[in-house]
Design a protein that fits this description.
It is a single chain. With 183 residues, the protein is an alpha+beta fold. The protein contains 5 helices and 8 strands; from the N terminus they run H-H-E-H-E-E-H-E-E-E-E-E-H. It is globular. InterPro entries: PspAB-like. Pfam families: PspAB.
């Protein structure tokens, strides 16, 4: 990054750090203790659809190692969802890390969009902690019926997990992931 970039306010993009996903385990403990939000045992990875032999081979390798379910959303993005016992958050996070790593190692890193882990509280409120691959940061997403958001819950969760995860400070980047598998 040069002097001209600094003067014009351009910043170097944050490099994804997939090891940040492992912070979800401590965030889950924090959420359960402070807000009664508990992991659902569901998590997923979203990426732009890819075709071809290299992708098919990588998918076969993933299927041999992990049990993931593939779906496509209404925008054409592919989601790979993993299921675990809700108490096994570390196993779920390990699966999500493995899926992201496999895509990245096979040259599909630019197609990665996000990963998420689902939570619910006793009242039935849903929440996802979403990892933005290209930003290397997390944000909470709390959907409500009719494609509305529980912004108060999102901000509450942000305050709770600030010491567990690298959070996305730009709230305009807290994109909704309506109907995401694992939510």
């Amino acid at each position: 990054m040069g002097l001209l970039d600094v003067l014009l306010g351009r910043t170097k993009p944050v490099r994804p750090d997939l090891d940040q996903l492992f912070g979800l385990s401590s965030a889950a403990i924090t959420l359960e203790a402070a807000s009664e939000l508990r992991p659902t045992g569901l998590g997923s990875v979203c990426f732009a659809a890819v075709e071809g032999g290299a992708f098919a081979e990588m998918r076969q390798d993933l299927d041999a190692l992990l049990s993931v379910e593939a779906t496509q959303d209404s925008y054409g993005y592919t989601w790979l969802m993993s299921r675990h016992d809700p108490a096994a958050i570390t196993d779920l996070v390990t699966d999500l890390h493995a899926v992201n790593s496999a895509l990245e190692e096979h040259g599909f890193g630019p197609q990665l969009l996000c990963s998420l882990v689902g939570f619910k509280d006793p009242a039935g409120r849903s929440l996802a902690l979403v990892y933005l691959y290209k930003r290397g940061s997390f944000y909470p997403f709390a959907p409500l019926p009719d494609e509305k958001r529980d912004s108060a819950l999102e901000l509450q969760v942000k305050a709770l997990v600030v010491n567990d995860l690298r959070l996305e400070n730009d709230l305009s980047r807290w994109f909704p992931v309506w109907g995401a598998p694992g939510l």
